[in-house]
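Weekly modeling sync, notes
Attendees: S.R. (lead), two postdocs, one rotation student

Agenda item 3: backlog of single-chain predictions. S.R. asked that every request posted to the team notebook include the full sequence so nobody has to chase files. The rotation student volunteered to paste the first one in as an example of the format we agreed on. Action items at the bottom.

Example entry:
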Amino acid sequence: MSEALSLLAEHVAASLGDAVLACDIRLDELSVRVEREAVPRALLFLRDDPKCGFEVLCDLCGVDYPDRERRFEVVYNLLSLKHNRRIRVKVETDEETPVPSATPIYSAAGWFEREAWDLYGIYFSDHPDLRRLLTDYGFEGHPMRKDFPLTGYVELRYDEEQKRVLYEPVKLTQEFRNFDFLSPWEGMDQLLPGDEKPATKEAADE
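Predicted structure, as returned to the notebook:
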């Protein structure tokens, strides 16, 4: 398998030239990092080339690395039914620079790209209908970003008097708890009801 993947990596790198930034084989899986502007050309080649034949887009997702200058990665997981193998294509981008949409090449990319836009704020140029998919229409921000607060920015509730849904700033119903980050077996010094251990015979004799 590794030899076949090495030959495939060489073929892809030689065919796409400068569009390929790196090829990596790890755990019998081939990953190819490509230039952002070359995404359509790379995906079209991987789909149509006889030695590749990656006709199925299994998944497209975003990854957030806040410490990087280009904080986002878009990951395309492709499958070749003919050759029974997979390839992972990666591309980097930032919060403002769009990634070319893959919808003209893989129709399944439409909803995947909407999800990446909704959860990470990754913009895809030339997408036919780039709208939020999983969050509410009035949602603010992108909840899968690592700098997004766990509580969010707003909360909604149904107001019986106004007969409509209201958006309000988040109000925590309890104070933040103090966490010592110890193991639950070490950090818990309070005995909870029901956790009492039955007395042993030796303890009873004492």
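Discussion: group reviewed the output briefly. The first helix runs from residue 2 to 16.
Action items: rotation student to repeat for the remaining queue; S.R. to check formatting next week.
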